[in-house]
Amino acid sequence: MMKVWGTNLTAITWAHAVNSQQLLDEVLTETSGIDFIEADIVLGKLNGDGEDMPIMAHPPANVSDLTLADFLYQIINFNRDHEDQKKGVKLDFKSIEVFEGSLDILDVNIPNPTTYPVWINADILSGPVEQNRTVPVDADRFFAGCMRYKQAVLSIGWTTNWGADFRDGEYTQQQCDDMLETLSGNNVLSTGQAITFPVRAGIAANSEEQLHRLVAAVNETNESTLTIWSSAGDYVDVDKLRKLIFSFGLDRVYLDVQEELASQLNLDNPGNGASTFKSLFGFSFVSLCFWALSSWMQQL
């Protein structure tokens, strides 16, 4: 049975960078209160010894006490034994080499059909703001491997450059068009596979129109959502981000941010007499309007 969280995806709780056995033990309990486990995968050594293999670590670290295979095996066992407390998992692959080196492990450890959410994540395009320090994961090779896991959600985003001193920056229309072209060119839009776009909170707040156009276009063939995330210390225009979230609707936005920012957003109180239903309806209508206007202008 697939765990159902209801229509408010922003209420889902996350554990970040679960890249060690101790951290995994802490979240795989009946009392952790965690719905989704996010972890990073690199090529490195188990306990510093032996050959390189897919391990749980975030660059620049390349040593861990937990391999990808053991990580997934323990989640499978926990979810099998805890029907009402299953954990979703988001696998963040930091390079194309580690992703391709993990395919045999994923073949064995991603159930088909799956009874809990499995997300395969990678930053496949260079993004804002003038980001050129992080090399994106090769999109063509990434999607070729992902074709083996139609039961998984594709979590695909842009590399970003943001922080406490940033104010101006957005996911440009060109960057969103590039994402749509990449999806189309790799036949992802012909599979109907679920997609979520991870977008950085401070940048997404400035990008409402472009993101609506992207999601509306993708939703013609594939179910898609946004996953809003942030790093500690990021500047975020809270009012603009809140407006963005309600324009899409609480059933279309995952919220993976620090507790302080989540509290400031005050999503339990839509304000101005707005109801959750109104915000959910608004997503479809506003996105469709943005997409229709964009399509019409391109024909002029």
UniProtKB/TrEMBL annotation:
Query: Where does it sit, as one GO cellular component term?
Result: extracellular space
Q: What's a Pfam family this protein contains?
A: Menorin_N
Origin organism of this chain? Drosophila mauritiana
Top-rank taxon of the source lineage equals Eukaryota
Q: What is this protein called?
A: Protein FAM151B
The record, for InterPro entries, names: Menorin_dom (IPR019356)
Residues forming the Menorin-like domain are 8-261
Q: Which family does it belong to?
A: Belongs to the menorin family.
